[in-house]
Amino acid sequence: MQQGPSPAWPGRAVADPARRSWDSPKPISIIGSTGSVGTQTLAIVEENPDKFRVVALAAGSNVTLLADQVKMFKPNLVAIGNESLLNELKEALADCEYMPEIISGEQGVIEVARHPDAVTVVTGIVGCAGLKPTVAAIEAGKDIALANKETLIAGGLSEGSLRRVILTASGGAFRLHLISFDDVRDWPIERLKDVQVADALKHPNWKMGKKITVDSATLFNKGLEVIEAHYLFGVEYDDIEIMIHPQSIIHSMIETKDSSVLAQLGRTDMRLPILYTLSWPERVYCSEVTWPRLDLCELGSLTFKAVDNVKYPSVDLAYAAGRAGGTMPGVLSAANEKAVELFINEKISYLDIFKVVEMTCDAHRNELVTSPSLEEIIHYDQWARKFSANLQPSSSRRNTVLV
Q: Any idea where the 1-deoxy-D-xylulose 5-phosphate reductoisomerase C-terminal domain is (predicted)?
């Protein structure tokens, strides 16, 4: 891919000295409330009713769960992204003593994101569908709790101190746990052609949604995090590294210019970064019953190894897309999202995922926009999905690899 300028934000997340300290529960809204991040966020709210309250919820199509969430958390506004399900949601809430305002479609999700009472907006929607709501929340002056897969660790360093960002990856589902926690071995590459959907969804460490679990197996999740780290922290791609860390205890590290390495450790529980994002810049005390102390002696050894680029071609694809900049990272993300969908629906093989993404990015070279508008980003996101869908094998037979 052609290398071009890829501007990054060089600033730091610093709390405003005039920032309000909340004596009462902080009002939040959640985009993607029925997904993995959304449900864990609500679990935190339920555990800390004195710290947080929900003022608005938005979900895609899970009417039953959304209705249950409305009854429990009593938001002022609720949005269902799938407009055809609006009446079904209203019927599910017909016997509810507390009736919120209910709206639907993309505009409804946007209204939840910029709800006037919300201070913090949790954006847990996968892919480009979350772009417009997030922009709306930013324009409305909200704090954005962006659903990342790694805890942000570079804040607080003086500018020029950072030498390297190190992102850790578990290695995904295709690992064999032998003998003990310390003895972790990978599937050989030759077995990957036989991977079934059920295999890819058996993550040894994390409980996540289907899409992100497959991304963990392919390592596209880390490739996307490389691009994310570049834009969040203004770090050059040559200074962002991925390491395989099977135990998933160290979630990310930074190396300062004097070679000191600082690591963020924690259990495999997304509630921790969600809670800190909601409470930032403060930290909330948590019961040791539900949040036990991390016992490193009990966990045993922490091991690391380099990424196998033959087994994980996603990594080279992500770095290339990031360096190309412009609309290419969005095309990479959209193509991967569509390819994973096709794989889960058993229309392509596991190895096809890499081919679909590579071919889509390659086809986008001649139309690359280096400084895209919001409309152009969305346009090429949709283009990439359509192009990727047309690359699926003509036969539905599994394990047919694209050529």
A: 160-233
CA gap 273, 160 in Å, rounded: 25
- Angle between the 374-389 and 328-344 helix axes, to the nearest 10 degrees? 40
Which residues have a Cβ under 8 Å from the Cβ of 307 and sit 6 or more positions away?
169, 219, 242, 243, 244, 315
Question: How does pLDDT run across 91-148, given as a tens digit for each residue?
Answer: 999 988 889 999 999 999 999 999 999 999 998 887 777 788 888 998 999 998 887 4
Mean pLDDT rounded to a whole number for the chain: 83
Q: Whose CA is closest to 171, among 217, 207, 204, 226?
A: 217
List beta partners, residue 56. 29, 77
CA torsion angle 379 381 383 389 (round to 10): -160
Q: Is the pLDDT of residue 268 over 70?
A: yes
Region 65-82: mean pLDDT is 95
Q: What angle do CA 41, 47, 48 make, to 5 degrees?
A: 90
User: Does residue 373 contact residue 330 with C-beta atoms inside 8 Å?
Assistant: no
Other CB atoms within 10 A of residue 365 CB: 12
Please report, for residues 5, 354, 385, the alpha-carbon distance to residue 371 in angstroms, rounded to integers and kept in the order given.
9, 26, 21
Count of positions (residues) in the chain:
403
The separation between the first and the last C-alpha atoms of the chain, rounded to the nearest angstrom, is 19
For helices 328-344 and 314-324, the axis angle rounded to 10 degrees is 150
Q: Which two tokens stand for residue 227?
A: 């691009």
Per DSSP, the residues of 203-272 read -SS----HHHHHHHHHTHHHHHHHHHHHHHH---GGGEEEEE-TT--EEEEEEETTS-EEEEE--S-THH
Residues contacting 191, CB < 8 A, separation 6+: 174
Dihedral pair phi/psi, residue 29, rounded to 5°: -125, 155
Q: How far apart are CA 63 and CA 159, in angstroms?
A: 46
Q: What is the pLDDT of residues 245-257, one digit of tens each?
A: 988 899 889 998 8
Are the C-beta atoms of residues 223 and 141 closer than 8 Å to each other?
no
Count the helix, strand and coil residues of the chain and give each as a percent rounded to the nearest 5. 40, 15, 45
Cα 230 to Cα 328: distance, rounded to the nearest angstrom:
14
Nearest-angstrom CA–CA distance, 349 and 347: 7
Nearest to 154 by CA among 255, 241, 251, 223: 255
